[in-house]
Design a protein that fits this description.
The complex is a heterodimer of chains A (334) and B (251).
Chain A lengths: L1 H11 E3 L5 E3 L12 H19 L6 H23 L6 H15 L5 H12 L19 H24 L7 H22 L1 H27 L13 E2 L2 H6 L6 H6 L8 H9 L8 E2 L2 H10 L12 H5 L7 H14 L1
Parallel strand pairs in A: 3-4
Antiparallel strand pairs in A: 1-2
Helix pairs in contact in A: 2-3, 3-4, 3-5, 3-8, 4-7, 5-14, 6-8, 7-8
Chain B lengths: L2 H47 L3 E8 L5 E13 L7 E13 L2 E3 L3 E3 L7 E3 L7 E2 L4 H8 L5 E10 L3 E5 L3 E3 L3 H31 L6 H27 L9 E5 L1
Classes of the chains: A mainly alpha (334), B alpha+beta (251).
Chain lengths: 334, 251
């Protein structure tokens, strides 16, 4: 991963007057200019929530559906931001986490344990990933898609609570508590102000986004082989989809090289992933995938041996346990 | 679009979300209950036929007269919240070793006999190879944590339930399964009843009035709480050998 990161920096960087290496991608506040898209998504979403609460004319089906959609993207931004802080300023990164937490009604910092450490390595000190697809118990697969957040959301809160009692990240608990207070406290205050309006036009979108990002765990790993190094994830490679989703469709490369900025994932997917994965794990459209697997069929798709493709073209990755240790160390130094 | 039509429509949507998820959580509990049924029936039949017996261990061929030893591979992590110093151990995997021995009534158990289920009391004392807390705490304070193991045993004099080839348990397996099935049924019924009561409150005229709003607040709280409750019920109702064990070592 360091080889990849340093290569991309070297191409686009120059030394400023103080000898500091400055990437051409940097802006005054951001590490990467592409992150303006992420900031824009969050601003648009929060502005829409405020408008729906304060302006009765904005309480309509179009704004509601748009708010649900932006809420899901807010959760995507949480994911990206928790891997790689958007801002140069540590304070702004922490403050942005709090803003994001309100938008999705859960503390963004929960991602450190649940996503960066446990999910990325499909391992919780020997126990399974809290978001493993096996948490979906029904034969009717559409019901699994609906029910999945009911289980893994709770697994995550339990797991983070245990993890936070042993983490050596100094201010994790303070930041996590702050985000919890802002997410639930601000929502509670708004509910007290105008219960039904806020329930319909703030809480429902918040829940849609938060539960949607949890469902992605099922969508991107169901039927994959999480014991393999390359065939553990499903990718959605449509260009339009990935523009809106900040390249979150390229999931295999993201899992294996979590520190790489999202804007670089499309090219890296072509370079490092295609050829090592079963072609069925590169889906052109998420909508078609959802239709085929959850709506047009009743039962769960039969698992294929997708990892067979990997045996033919194995590339050495550091052992998964070592990568997990690196991720844990990284969260201590952020 | 006016509030006259749109708010009630949004109310129906919100109630739909509440009910769909409540019913799925209840259905998951009932499916787990159903899955326990065949094992309960087979154990009940075995008890009636005398194949499942309760007996005391007369002799064990293992260390210190143990009939069976359960070894848990664990990872220990130093607790960083307040004092005193503690290490939290969580289970990574577990295995059983049947040493063989004899039960009251002349039942002989051979070493290494196959058993489909081994259910040991989750609160039984664990023996740990580590003795130096300071050294263990230092190692548990690293990123890697402290990989270690601990064990518990079924010893001479202990009461067990045994069915050859099927189960060795330190608790009554029939009663355990009955309790779990009953708990899952009560949880499923309780979730639906609470959801129904809150729905009635929400729909009391005038809709969106004081009682209706209190019902809505209760329903939101219920929606947020029934999910972890469902997961707690699921974990509680797992078979004893599928429940990972954790424990704390305090200075």
């Amino acid at each position: 991963m360091s080889e990849l990161s340093s290569a991309s920096v070297a191409i686009t960087s120059s030394a400023d007057g103080r000898g500091r290496v400055r990437s051409e991608q940097e802006t005054f506040l951001l590490h990467h200019r592409a992150d303006r898209r992420q900031v824009g998504i969050v601003l648009a979403y929060d502005a829409l929530l405020v408008a729906m609460v304060l302006v009765p004319a904005c309480r309509n089906p179009v704004c509601f559906v748009l708010a649900c959609y932006l809420s899901f993207l807010n959760a995507v931004v949480i994911h990206n931001h928790m891997h790689k802080g958007i801002f140069k300023s540590r304070f702004l990164n922490r403050a942005f986490r709090a803003v994001l937490s309100f938008g999705s009604l859960y503390p963004a910092s929960a991602n450190v344990a649940s996503h960066n450490i446990v999910h990325h390595h499909f391992d919780d000190d020997g126990q399974p990933d809290w978001a493993a697809p096996k948490n979906a118990p029904f034969r009717w697969h559409l019901m699994n898609l609906i029910h999945f957040p009911n289980v893994i959301g709770s697994n995550t809160f339990d797991g983070v609570s245990r993890w936070s009692s042993t983490t050596r990240q100094k201010d994790f608990k303070r930041q996590y508590t702050l985000e919890m207070v802002i997410a639930f406290g601000l929502t509670g205050i708004l509910l007290a102000y105008d219960f039904w309006t806020v329930l319909f036009f703030v809480v429902l979108p918040q829940l849609w986004g938060a539960r949607g990002i949890l469902r992605i765990n099922l969508i991107q790993h169901d039927g994959c082989d999480t014991t393999s190094e390359w065939n553990h994830s499903r990718n959605f490679v449509g260009r339009g989809f990935n523009w809106v989703m900040c390249n979150n469709g390229y999931h295999t490369i993201h899992h294996n090289f979590a520190g790489v900025h999202w804007s670089e994932l499309a090219a890296l997917h072509q370079r490092k992933v295609v050829g090592k994965i079963d072609p069925s794990l590169d889906e052109s459209s998420m909508v078609l995938y959802l239709w085929r697997n959850f709506f047009a069929r009743f039962g769960r798709p039969i698992d294929r041996d997708v990892a067979r493709a990997e045996a033919a073209a194995r590339e050495a990755l550091a052992p998964r346990q070592e990568r997990k240790l690196e991720a844990t160390e990284a969260c201590l130094t952020e | 679009m006016t509030d006259t039509y749109f708010y009630p429509a949004m109310g129906v949507l919100a109630l739909g979300v509440l009910w769909l998820n409540t019913l799925l959580i209840a259905a998951a509990a009932l499916a787990q209950r159903r899955a326990l049924g065949p094992l309960l029936r087979s154990l009940r039949d075995a008890r009636r036929d005398g194949r499942l017996v309760r007996a005391n261990v007369q002799k064990g061929e293992g260390p210190s007269g143990a009939l069976l030893t359960r070894t848990i591979e664990q990872v220990g992590r130093a607790v960083t919240t307040g004092s005193p110093d503690r290490i939290l151990f969580t289970e990574a995997s577990a295995r059983h070793e049947l040493h063989g021995g004899e039960l009251g009534g002349g039942v002989v158990i051979e070493p290494g006999e196959a058993l489909a289920q081994v259910w040991l009391d989750g609160t039984a004392t664990l023996r740990r190879a580590l003795t130096d807390f300071d050294d263990a705490f230092r190692r548990a304070s690293t990123t890697r944590g402290l990989p270690t193991s601990a064990s518990s045993s079924v010893n001479m004099g202990d009461a067990i339930w045994f069915q050859r080839g099927e189960i060795l348990a330190s608790m009554d397996p029939v009663r355990t399964l009955r309790t779990k099935r009953m708990g899952l049924a009560l949880f499923a019924i309780g979730a639906v009843v609470i959801g129904a009561a809150l729905t009635v409150a929400i729909l009391l005229p005038p809709i969106f009035g004081t009682v209706s709003t209190a019902g809505g607040a209760g329903a939101l709280l219920f929606f947020l709480l029934v999910q972890p409750a469902g997961v707690k019920a699921r974990d509680w109702a797992r078979l004893p050998d599928e429940q990972p064990r954790s424990d704390v070592w305090q200075r």
